[in-house]
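Supplementary notes for students who missed Thursday's class. We covered one full example, reproduced here. Read the sequence, then the structure, then the short commentary at the end.
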Amino acid sequence: MDIEELMPQQPEGGKEEQKKSPLVSLEKDLDLYAEALKEVAIEIIVEGISANPIFIAHQHTVSIGEVILDRKELSTDWTIQASTFEEFVEKGIITPEKKALFLRSYKKPEDFMCVFVIVPEGANFIYYPYKNKG
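Structure (token representation):
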């Protein structure tokens, strides 16, 4: 699932009266964090911790993964924590019957960050491309 699918569709020059989706600020933060997140993902893979790094984006407190980018310290909207497929299975977020499906849909970690986005309405996985600076 791409971030665009989660964002409300607005016509060009849409009215600001509509409540802005929190995913607009998430996209901005992911672009800002992209280089650091890619380095962490590659480190997780190279060190043999996991072939499937997962980042958790949230605005509250969650008890999975380790904080790598704190929104309070960085004056951004989202805190990012690093985790792995294995931890998600261990914590029961990815159930045994969904493991194969998740791994089949997992995109290349060199090209996409796998982000588990937690908002008050729920949580979902998105794959967000690392954008090349230029």
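Commentary. The CA atoms of residues 41 and 47 lie 10 Å apart. The longest strand covers residues 112-119. If anything here is unclear, bring it to office hours.
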